[in-house]
Amino acid sequence: MKTVKILGPGCANCKKLEAVAREAAAGAGIETQFVKVTDMKAIMAYDVMSTPGLVIDEKLVSSGRIPTQGEIRQWMEA
To answer: H or E segment at 53?
Structure first.
């Protein structure tokens, strides 16, 4: 099972990133646990300078933008 963390304060972009990531996981048939991280200290621990951030299995793969479903699917399958 993959663990996907959405890093951000809960803004509209954070919610959109979560929706895109959920669609990517469902489309790829990958069992995924989603975690929202809103605590700024926890977010800064990933060296995120701008939100939203996306962490897959404890690896920061994106920050400051909303990646496409295709990008997220590739990161999940890697």
So the answer is: strand 53-56
- Following CA atoms 33, 38, 39, 43 in sequence, which dihedral angle do they give, to the nearest 10 degrees? 70
Q: Return the residue matching tokens 């304060």.
A: 9
- Kindly report the average pLDDT of the chain as a whole number: 96
Q: What is the pLDDT of residues 17-45, one digit of tens each?
A: 999 999 999 999 999 999 999 999 999 99
Report CA torsion sign: 21, 5, 36, 48.
negative
Q: Would you call 78 exposed, middle or buried from its count of C-beta atoms within 10 A (0-12, 13-18, 19+)? A: exposed
Per-residue model confidence (pLDDT) at position 49:
87
- 49 DSSP β-pair partners: none
* Residue 65 DSSP one-character state: S
